[in-house]
Amino acid sequence: MIDATELRSRTQKLLAAHPPATTDRLDFLGARFDAGLAWVHYPEGLGGLGAPRSLQAVVDAELEAAGAPDNDPRRIGIGLGMAAPTILGFGTEEQKRRYLRPLWTGEAVWCQLFSEPGAGSDLAALGTRAVRDGEEWVVNGQKVWTSSAHLARWAILIARTDPDVPKHRGITYFICDMTDPGVEVRPLRQITGEAEFNEVFLTDVRIPDARRLGGIGDGWRVAQTTLMNERVSIGGMRLPREGGMIGPIAKTWRERPELRTHDLHQRLLKLWVEAEVARLTGERLRQQLVAGQPGYEGSGMKLSFARLNQEISGLEVELLGEEGLLYDDWTMRRPELVDFTGRDAGYRYLRSKGNSIEGGTSEVLLNIVAERVLGLPAEPRTDKDVAWKDLAR
């Protein structure tokens, strides 16, 4: 069993062989992956050493102290947080060796082709079709709210391969090359002025069967791994005290005493405590992850993340008064990442409105928490045993 001492030794050997100050960034990241120091809990040869997940912090601390570059995790979050664990869990050995290394180094950006105009909250009702043609699948349909599609080389995609069975059973999971003929990406301009999201049209896109993840018709089960990891990555990110949305408003409160009122003070204290509770709960969740895969607790964290972001940003705009009505820049841009703390209060207020939709709507997540965490009776569902093609649409 590899322990912390062994990991420190391996990290020092990596730094000696590839000094960060003189080594190309991608070369260093590739060497780190090959040394098993990317995800230490992953298997050997796939960026890890089969070590306990909790020991990743040992490696990260050593590298940070040495000024080593990171892989810009915010820019490649979909690949790291969603695609990688799904490929690890369901991919063939060839798929794991092909995709995981460039995914981790950031050479290949990933996006997620799940939601559709008619299948967002009810994702299993999706209508994008994949029809088998020899050793390929021909895919036609439309996806929407796709973050990073304008940057991505690869996408994780779910499509309907059997319309004659109930909606959850006729779905298959694929890896889609975003550069293939028939893939069209169009920007979706948001209320913030940016086009962070996209809609993606798939017209006779041919995907080799070798890029299928999991069994035919087993895509919903595979997608659950993606979705549970997505919610953890959104709601359970590691933050310092006063990290995230609570940081800017706390800073304004301290620096602008003329804005304070008793009512605002009481509301800020309440949200500060809730943000700290959420942060510490996230730490606990990450400790639980050491023992296995994420469970439905991530849905609760994502719920809390969305509610807090919206309440904190609303209070920040109110605190600033007339200044809170200003907006820094409506320029149409297609950003590489979401920067909640690098923009002004108006941006945070507007962008946080999407937090209760993306990564699973709050209404759906409330059902998941109620049924699968609290064990409450499930809501009646009349469509579970009906073939997808017979559902009302």
Textual characterization of the structure:
The chain is α+β, with helices and mostly antiparallel strands. Helix content is 40%, strand content 13%. It contains 11 helices and 8 strands. The strands form 2 sheets. It has a 4-stranded mixed β-sheet. A 4-stranded antiparallel β-sheet has the order 2-3-7-6, with no helix packed on it. A hairpin with a 2-residue loop joins strand 2 and strand 3. Helix 8 runs antiparallel to helix 9. The termini are far apart. The model has no long low-confidence stretch (mean pLDDT 92).
Give a quick summary of the entry.
This protein has 393 residues and is of the alpha+beta class. The chain is 40% helix and 13% strand.
Give me the oligomer status: single chain
Number of strands: 8
Given as residue ranges, the uncertain stretches (5+ residues, pLDDT < 50) are none
Radius of gyration: 22 Å
Mean pLDDT: 92
* Helix run count: 11
Quote the beta fraction. 5-15%
Structural class: alpha+beta
First and last CA, distance: 54 Å
Sheet with the most strands, sense and barrel status: 4 strands, mixed
Name the strands of the widest sheet in spatial order.
Answer: 1-4-5-8
| Helix content class | 40-55%
Categorize the overall geometry: globular
Sketch the topology as an H/E string, one letter per element: HHHHHEEEEEEEEHHHHHH
